[in-house]
UniProtKB/TrEMBL annotation:
<keyword id="KW-0862">Zinc</keyword>
<protein>
    <submittedName>
        <fullName>Transposase</fullName>
    </submittedName>
</protein>
<keyword id="KW-0238">DNA-binding</keyword>
<dbReference type="InterPro" id="IPR051399">
    <property type="entry name" value="RNA-guided_DNA_endo/Transpos"/>
</dbReference>
<comment type="similarity">
    <text>In the C-terminal section; belongs to the transposase 35 family.</text>
</comment>
<keyword id="KW-0233">DNA recombination</keyword>
<keyword id="KW-0479">Metal-binding</keyword>
<dbReference type="Pfam" id="PF01385">
    <property type="entry name" value="OrfB_IS605"/>
</dbReference>
<feature type="domain" description="Cas12f1-like TNB">
    <location>
        <begin position="314"/>
        <end position="380"/>
    </location>
</feature>
<keyword id="KW-0815">Transposition</keyword>
<dbReference type="InterPro" id="IPR001959">
    <property type="entry name" value="Transposase"/>
</dbReference>
<comment type="similarity">
    <text>In the N-terminal section; belongs to the transposase 2 family.</text>
</comment>
<dbReference type="InterPro" id="IPR010095">
    <property type="entry name" value="Cas12f1-like_TNB"/>
</dbReference>
<feature type="domain" description="Transposase putative helix-turn-helix">
    <location>
        <begin position="1"/>
        <end position="43"/>
    </location>
</feature>
<dbReference type="Pfam" id="PF12323">
    <property type="entry name" value="HTH_OrfB_IS605"/>
</dbReference>
<dbReference type="InterPro" id="IPR021027">
    <property type="entry name" value="Transposase_put_HTH"/>
</dbReference>
<dbReference type="Pfam" id="PF07282">
    <property type="entry name" value="Cas12f1-like_TNB"/>
</dbReference>
Amino acid sequence: MRRSFTFLLRPTTKQTAALAACLEDHRTLYNAALEHRRTAYAKASVSIRYGDQSAELKHIRSDDPDGQGRWSFSSQQATLRRLDRAFAAFFARVKAGRTPGFPRFKGRGRFDTVEWPKDGDGCRWDSQPEHTSATFVRLQGVGHVRVHQHRPVRGRVKTISVKREGDRWYVILACDDVPAEPLPATGAVVGLDMGVAALVTTSNGVHLANPRHLAATADRLADAQRDLAGGRRGSTRRHKKVARVAALHGKVRRQRSDYAHKAALALVRAYDVIVHEDLRIANMTRSASGTIDAPGRNVAQKSGLNRSILDAGWGVFLRVLAYKAESAGRELIAVNPAGTSRTCSRCGHCAKDNRLTQAEFVCTACGHAAHADVNAATNILRAGLALRQAAEAA
């Protein structure tokens, strides 16, 4: 299986400046390649491909030895492939009849990653193995950068990426042939209902709390954003204010990820089969503001619900749960959640009036009463086991 490992970098002041220059030069290359494609098509109706632009890299590097020529050729090819994928996605959306979203130029805050496609080609993981107490990654043009390696790397390192988040730098290793770590069988199965009051409610009545990390930081974040709004663009002071906002968002993101890992690991250790809702989170959190001609209704309430759903981190949790289940040899089943919150888990009667409040479920047909989320999780489990049985019979 394939997995990624993320570690914090500990660059020196000089290396930090070199990393920033590397990122900026790759951003410039991306924007120049995009402008090349736009101009060629607008002026001569000629479509420029990745192969055409990759062939020009040699001349670009020789004409700018102290700029573009400093960095790895393969990392620059990866940046050009990134632009090529953006165009491929654009044409796929056009073909599917969706909103196209033409590739845009990248501002300084919208280009934060450089990739080296192959370990050993312009980069080297664990570049100084003689150091027994520290790990280093070597990057062409930057040098040997110290890594805060908090866990072992498994499998074969395939690609290396460096990412900037605020004032922090991270190295991301994509590894192939990562061995699975199967856990002993428990014989237990469970259904999961995702929510806002509780992040997860299981079919056997366990509620995993929703920490609401963003809400806990909301006051500090509001102060930081208010302070940022009054800053003058381009000033050093405004840069510090931007860094403060980014640091608060980064902290929330790390807290949310940490909690998702712990909650998912507890479930994977306890159950052999885990059934969850197949949620379309992007659709669920779409804005209700509408248009000028057709304005939305209950916009404030929908905005608050969207914020609560995103703060809960359903997507992060389900993504972490999926790869932990795969590594542990557990079975993960996603089912359509339609009707699960209104259907009685005892008699199967489905009606809107069954769910009286957010937490209370009373069946109008048989009188069955239960916590609404536990009732929904039971229905989800039953639907997942039915899918599993049908698949085994096929």
